[in-house]
Amino acid sequence: MEELLSKILEKHKEKIVKVKEIVPWRVIFEVPDGKLKELAKDIFETHGFRLSTISTLDQGFYFELLYHFVKDKYILTLKTIIPKEKPKIPSLTDIIPGANWLEREVRDLFGVEFEGHVEPERIVLPPDWVLEPPLRKPIAPKLPPTYAEYLVNLTSKAALASVTGIVKRRRTKMGLPEVVAPVLESKKVIEEIKKISKELEVDRKVPVRK
Questions:
Q1: Burial class (CB in 10 A: 0-12, 13-18, 19+), 76
Q2: pLDDT tens-digit map of 43-94
Q3: Check: CATH 3.30.460.80 for 2-115?
């Protein structure tokens, strides 16, 4: 497998943004959405991988599409990111017939459009479905834990950092106020921040990237 992956990497090194080895028999290649089809075609037609399934992760502002290819006991996943506002990506159905139902399922459940699909009819939802795709979440940011904590504190306490119980007790022993005064005290700015976070649907809880 290592030798085969090396050949693929060498041939497509300008397309592959990142390589991640989960275990020795499972590897992820991250590629731009515009390059995925070319790479998928090569590993399918030249190297004998078959498309097993397509996973979709709703990450707030964008979708992660994971195309899982298998050969013998090995799994090679092609990962790409597409914007949630206009989730479109070229279909693989003209080169991999088995992608037909997989892409249609993702389209029905998440609203991703696979351009050039040979049979774009619905497969999970009824033909007259007019509501939002059932597994598509509202657009909201995915933040690293540090920034998520900042935003929660900023919108709830008008402060940039929370004060732990230990810090409160130490401040009390030193004769200081238990809670630090807010960094920002402008009510106008605070209300504007709260309004923006509410529109982004992060006013109650900020999603954190695991």
A1: buried
A2: 999 999 999 999 999 988 889 999 999 999 999 999 999 988 889 999 999 9
A3: yes
